[in-house]
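Please complete every field before forwarding. Incomplete forms are returned to the sender.

SECTION A: IDENTIFIERS
Entry label: holo-337
Bound molecule: S-adenosylmethionine
Molecule representation: SMILES string

SECTION B: INPUTS
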Amino acid sequence: MAASTKMKTPYQNHIDKADFDHVYEPAEDSFLLIDALEKDLHYLKVKNPTFCLEVGSGSGVVITAFGMAFPNTFCISTDINFKACEMSATTANYNNVLLEPVNMDLISFFVDKKFDVIIFNPPYVVTKTEECGGTDIVASWAGGVKGREVTDRLLNMIPKKLAEDGTFYLLLIEENIPNEVVEIMKIYGYKSELVIKRRVRNEHQLVLKFYK
Amino acid sequence: MKLITHNMLTSKCLKGVTTGYPLSIKATNVKVTEVDFNPEFITRIIPKLDWDVLWSAADSIGHSEGLPKTVEPKFEDDEEFLKKAHRVLLEIEVEEGHLTCPESGRQFPISKGIPNMLLTEAEVQ
Ligand SMILES: C[S@@+](CC[C@H](N)C(=O)[O-])C[C@H]1O[C@@H](n2cnc3c(N)ncnc32)[C@H](O)[C@@H]1O
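SECTION C: PREDICTED COMPLEX
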């Protein structure tokens, strides 16, 4: 039996457009991340993850797409924005995926080394430090210095929370200086690989993966 | 919030807290939803959980009846056990209530099934 090599796009028509005033609306970056996971589908199927966590799940499209492709994986999501947690729950529900959203900063409340897969599409826009760190829609894009303030805090937690043989997928743009991220992760003992990249208007988006 | 999730949460990131595990649960509204039984999934998840914590959590919200206190070595062949585990792990959800840090007493509300664990800067380690 040939396993499917495609990931399905979750149904999203249940979402009231007005809710996107408060929660990040799925955009090219969201779909690039789904495409990256699809590109890595074979690798992930072999890994057969037990626990998958999406950090900052927003509308929930990415983790729901993951859950649809991996019915034997338990999916958890976090977001600093409570409304995003609610929307993630509904999106998963409409697509028959079991998802557990928790409203928290990054992954700070989880026990160590449980997650086989961690996924993050961070707030990556370069802004002033003061703009980043909120809990509303601004937190969906405002990334502070180099657009990396939120991402760098997560990088620091990965060695503790990711399972030893786990994989971490991270979306970045060129302005975030991906090479620096690769260097930081190398210091933490991780190898890295470029999974996919795409130019969207003036933005160069890419997805990196990290593993030991 | 399902009890699998509770099994994975600790408040050790709070200032002055060393273990923060397990959080205690106070539920004011527990929902039971039917979920398709997937023995393969339940079998692989059980060894990755702290069963004592799961049992006590189920007990604290009034759903430990018939649930064994320990996991037998050959649990994967015991369909009746797997069905009980399935119910406690996936079908029971705390909709409203709160979680409490065992050391600091800090409470985290659960509303619409979602635990709210946001902290103020002063609370972070
Ligand atoms: C670029 S959006 C991505 C949303 C969704 N994952 C997607 O791909 O469409 C970034 C998300 O991260 C969340 N976020 C920002 N800072 C966070 C933090 N410190 N902890 C958890 N989530 C955070 C935002 O609320 C937002 O939902």
